[in-house]
Amino acid sequence: MLADNLLSIEPYEICSIRPPTENSSLTFRLARNCYWNKCAFCPVYKNGAKFSRRSIHEILNDIATAKRILNLLNEHVLLNSPFGRDDATLYSLIADVKNSHLNHGKITNLNEKLNEPEDDPLLDERTKWFLTWFKDKPAIEDSLIHVYSWILGGGRNCFLGDADALIFKPEFMSNVTGAIRSNFPSISRITVYGRTKTAAALRTVDDLKQFAEAGINRIHFGMESGSDEVLKMVNKGVTAAEHIAAAIKVRAAGISCSVYVMPGIGGMELSGQHGAGTARTLSSMNPDFVRLRTLEIFPGTGLSNLAASGKFTEATEEQVVREIRTIILDTECETEIVSDSATNLLEINGRLPRDRKFMLEQIDSYLSLGRREKLEFSFNSRIQSFIGQYGGLTADMYSLIARGVTDGMLDASVFSDSELLSITRLIRNRLMP
Fold it and tell me: How many angstroms from the chain centroid is the CA of residue 405?
């Protein structure tokens, strides 16, 4: 019986690209990748990943596969162990599944890989690093670890990807969420990514109310900026007016509206317009959450090409912080400001308007630092972000800072200004938004 159970375990399509708040969510792909895929700042889906809608049969099959994985984990991994995680049993089970597949000819070797894009010798190192994190075709172990992480995270949240779930009709969404709730009754929150363009132009309030009735609790929108000039420059394919229309519809339907703002996306040239336009647009959108996700320029993107041609100049960290200050100061609505991206220099969190003064004081505290103090602040902040995102420093990263470590404590003062800048940049190159 166990052999049959092991053979029934297959990899299923999980969502590598999801909001930080959904890192411990159970995920299912409604569509693969992004049909727009033209945003100048975005490194995702740029290395051969093609957009496609998935059939209801494919999605329901994935839900059934995840349920089989859950049953296997419940039976063989001590999820309720008084010691918490039981990774040893988990990885032993993964090995048993793979050996069973090998013995029955379903795989040819235990380390079999699917033509991973990061193996392309023509890719630069930063893109290769990113692609090891982006799993377009997960392996068996990815799927088991994914379900296991969901259980350890509380087993209550679900995220449906990839880039824009609002292209699907409400009836389709209801079929999917019904199957999810039937197989995973502990789930109480289901969220999706959406494009404001789709919500504004394609979906009515009644459509969105049906999404809410199907169990969609929150829509995450990549707003990026509220400035039309910036939105056009980065080829976002949407206007500030459409941002506003989308948020008003979503809130009218009773769905939580969460928007991502990208400090730095205007570069030096449009920094002022970006901050002011974003605050103005947010004030009209009145979203439930504003999540800050600072720009990082990836090779091969449109912004990288614009920078190489001299048409885009990356904003300094101080300019980025001043943009955030403008957004905090001038946004006139009740909303939650959340800094939950590893790319952010400052952790600015609070509720507007209640916590405006507190957040501005945090920002002004950084702005009051001298040049050297800012360099050391950035250095320490980025190291902590790397540790938080990856659970520690990799060997190559530790080698960069080893000279400053004594008795487990890091002293940034031993590094020159140029060393701090160089190491900080290398660390930022490894952080995922």
Answer: 31
Looking at the predicted structure, is the pLDDT value of residue 174 above 80?
A: yes
Rounded-to-integer distance, Cα 337 and Cα 294, Å: 14
Smallest CA-to-CA distance from 28 within 168, 123, 128, 130 is with 168
Arithmetic mean of pLDDT over the chain = 91
Give the CA-trace dihedral at 223, 228, 229, 235, to 10 degrees. 50
CA 182 to CA 194: how far, in whole Å? 24
CA distances from 164 to 18, 56, 70, 143, 156 (A): 11, 16, 27, 22, 22
Q: Is the dihedral of CA 20, 222, 327, 335 positive or negative?
A: negative
Q: Is the pLDDT of residue 129 over 70?
A: no
| Structure-block tokens of residue 143 | 């799927």
Residue carrying structure tokens 């190491």: 423
Between 2-6, 142-146, 170-174, the lowest mean confidence (pLDDT) is in 2-6
What are the structure tokens assigned to 231, written together?
A: 């939105």
Given a cut of 70, whether residue 16 has pLDDT beyond it is: yes
Crossing angle between the packed helical segments 56-76 and 170-183, to the nearest 10 degrees: 20
Please state, in angstroms and rounded to a whole number, the distance separating the CA atoms of residues 385 and 391. Answer: 10
Per-residue pLDDT at 112: 58
Nearest to 208 by CA among 170, 161, 160, 241: 170
Q: What is the DSSP string of 147-183?
A: HHHHHHTTS-EEEEESS-GGGS-HHHHHHHHHHHHHH
The b-or-e profile of 201-232 (16+ CB within 10 A means b, else e) is eebeeebbbbbbebbbbbbbbbbbbbbbebbe
pTM for this model (two decimals):
0.91
Angle at 235 between CA 234 and CA 236, to 5 degrees: 95
- The answer to whether 277 and 412 are in contact (CB under 8 A) is no
Whole-number Å distance between alpha carbons of 194 and 168: 11
Task: Please give the Cα distance from 337 to 14 (Å, whole number).
Answer: 28
Give 243's pLDDT tier (boundaries 50, 70, 90): very high
> Which burial class, exposed, middle or buried, applies to 389 when counting CB atoms under 10 A from its CB (0-12, 13-18, 19+)?
middle
On the question of pLDDT at 1 being above 50, the answer is no
**In degrees rounded to 5, what are phi and psi of residue 363?**
-65, -45
What pLDDT shows up at residue 115? 46
Lowest mean pLDDT: which of 137-146, 184-193, 240-249, 365-374?
A: 137-146
**Confidence (pLDDT) at 116:** 56
